[in-house]
Amino acid sequence: MPPAELLLLLLLLATVVVVARLHDLFAAAMLTGIVSLLAAGLFVLMDAVDVAFTEAAVGAGISTVLFLGALSLTSRREKHGKGTAVLPFLIVVATGAALIYGTWDMPAYGDPDAVIHHHLAPDLIAETEEKIHIPNIVTAILASFRGYDTLGEVVVIFTAGVGVALLLGGLGLKRRNASGGEEP
Amino acid sequence: MKRPSRVREMPILRVVARALAPVILLFGLYVQFHGDFGPGGGFQAGVIFAAGLIVFALTFGVEALRQVVPVVMTERLMAAGVLLYGAVGVLAMFLGGEFLNYSALDPLTTGHHGQHLGIIVIELGVGIAVAATIMRVYYAFVGRRPDDGGDEGEEGGARTLDAGADAGGGAA
Questions:
Q1: A7 pLDDT band (50/70/90 cuts)?
Q2: Angle in degrees, 0-180, between the axes of helices B42-60 and B112-142, rounded to the nearest 10
Q3: Predicted ipTM of the assembly
Q4: Per-residue b/e over B62-96, b at no fewer than 16 CB within 10 Å?
Q5: What are residue A24's DSSP bridge partners?
Q6: Is A139 left (phi over 0), alpha (psi -120 to 50) or beta?
Q7: Pairwise CB contact (< 8 Å): A168 & B85
Q8: What is the distance in angstroms between the Cα of A114 and the nearest Cα belonging to chain B?
Q9: Helix (H) or strand (E) holding B152
């Protein structure tokens, strides 16, 4: 593994362990943003710039703001649970082990002989320029070849927004009693 | 107003945010309209644009942002973005193509301009929907007060804008 990616992975691992052990929720929220930033750096090194872009904007930016917004409604420190955390720890370790076991079947990172590089990718790389006439193949696939999927994703985002608005309400409630001033 | 929002009294944060927010908004627009050439597109652009507005809100208060982008406007734009995307698909059907087949948008040429046009418009729809949704979610989070957690039935009417601005300021 190249040293830059190894360094980022080690930093990622260290940050995640610290987040899991912290009881200060404010610090944990900030470190979660750093986890996203490190992940975004890894994605850049893996040439997945679009994904890195999204991870940095959503994970490091918006999620942190929303965490802090939620944090301002509750206490800053985590309450200590009564029981020991042995069972959750075992479940997490087992799940992680299962996930790592699953990666054994995956082709090596960057392997040009991997199945996924031989099914649709060559056609898309060869034909996008001629069919869609825009240079960014990722955008061409997302917006045109997979236009249905992207429409579905936008509807999902819209639905999520409507759900949050209905559940939390927030400032939307203010409209109905706009004349009301300070509450008692 | 139990807690003064200290962020708005910190000159460094205020000056930096005032300088950064327009740059972030401009970068969001760049990502939006340059998505066919560089990395990015409607989703990233919408998130970045909303982030720029939230930076503004964190320093100047939610109330200041609400004067620029009212809550009703975010709700309408959420729907407008999705409808814009869908409308492109329906328009393509009316022009003789399949749903979302952008080549039909430009029947005079072999379809290249149609593809380009269609992609730009649907990416715009995605960007509008995403930015508006994030703004709406942000409003929902900062619009709550610590005491109206469980029993919002009675307390629902008591939420004030100041509380929202306070939470937003306190969050930073």
A1: very high
A2: 30
A3: 0.81
A4: bbebbeebebeebbebbebbbebbbebbebbeeee
A5: A77
A6: alpha
A7: no
A8: 24
A9: helix B152-155
Tokens of A180: 């009301």
Chain B residue with minimum CA distance to A129: B112
Residue-wise pLDDT tens digits, B42-68: 899 999 999 999 988 888 888 889 999
Q: What is the dihedral of CA B16, B22, B25, B26, to 10 degrees?
A: -120
pLDDT band for B164, please (50, 70, 90 cuts).
Answer: very low
Q: Which residue of B has its CA nearest to A59?
A: B47
- Note the pLDDT of residue A175: 46
Angle between helices B71-94 and B112-142 (to 10 degrees): 160
Averaged pLDDT of chain A? 85
Residue where the block lists tokens 């061409």: A140
What pLDDT, in 10s, does the model give residues B73-89?
999 999 999 999 999 99
**B119 neighbors B102 (Cβ within 8 angstroms):** yes
Block residue for tokens 């910190």: B10
Q: How far is CA B16 from CA B22, B30, B56, in A?
A: 11, 21, 10
